[in-house]
Specification:
Shape: globular
Radius of gyration: 18 Å
Number of strands: 6
Structural class: alpha+beta
InterPro entries: Lon_prtase_N, Lon_prtase_N_sf, PUA-like_sf
Number of domains: 2
Organism: Tectimicrobiota bacterium
CATH class of the largest domain: Mainly Beta
Protein name: LON peptidase substrate-binding domain-containing protein
CATH architecture of the largest domain: Roll
Pfam families: LON_substr_bdg
Length: 217
């Protein structure tokens, strides 16, 4: 794992929850975040994605509150457009927790602590993979949105990478994805993912929509 500085730029968005071992394409158009990308490309190519808390709209161009847990990614591709905008791709590296927010630049930075990935882990039991596959197929049919279940489960990923990938691609509300990001280990992550899929399937079948009570606080 690459060395990552403890002070990183923070890119807050209202609807994106980023996971380690996944990839995130971004189009950067605001002047402050163009500067952020430029600074990263000139120095250290790391950006921490953060989820904005509810009620962010009135203060979006200031520094509205964010949830403390996020994922830091490395810029692995960048394209600067003629008008100064950027297209970039981040590769998720580690989960972080904000210890202190810093406002020395036009964009927000933070002093963070990192949560390391487990060094060794076993694959998910076949019975769990089968249940995930079944629930994902049912959820996909109910929301009428195709999810490449076969491709994802056939990639041979270890449990953490697989769970992060599934959590990233599943069309779940941001609050539910943040609930998954908060998981402390693969076992808890798997249990939460299964519970969310079951809950949303039941809700959809009952005609109440996919979103349940808020899961973040």
């Amino acid at each position: 794992m690459k060395w990552i500085p403890q002070v990183i730029p923070i890119f807050p968005l209202p609807d994106v929850v980023f996971f380690p071992e996944t990839f995130l394409p971004l189009h950067i158009f605001e002047p402050r975040y163009r500067q952020m990308v430029q600074d990263c490309l000139e120095d250290r190519p790391f950006i921490g994605m953060a989820l904005l808390r509810e009620g962010w709209e009135p203060n979006y161009y200031g520094a509205p509150p964010v949830y403390p847990l996020g994922c830091v990614g490395e810029i692995i591709h960048s394209e600067k457009l003629s008008d100064g905008r950027y297209n970039i791709v981040l590769r998720g590296l580690k989960k972080y927790e904000i210890l202190e927010e810093l406002f020395h630049r036009s964009y927000r930075q933070a002093l963070v602590g990192f949560r390391d990935l487990p060094e060794e882990e076993a694959s998910l039991p076949e019975s769990v993979r089968e249940e995930l596959e079944s629930l994902m197929r049912r959820y996909s049919r109910l929301i009428d949105q195709e999810i490449a279940v076969d491709n994802l489960l056939a990639m041979g990923l270890e449990s953490t990478a697989l769970l992060n990938t599934l959590s990233s691609v599943l069309p779940l509300p941001p609050g539910e994805k943040y609930f998954l990001l908060e998981s402390e280990n693969p076992s808890q992550h798997c249990g939460r993912l299964l519970d969310l899929l079951r809950f949303n399937i039941i809700a959809l079948q009952g005609g109440r929509g996919p979103s349940g009570p808020p899961l973040v606080h």
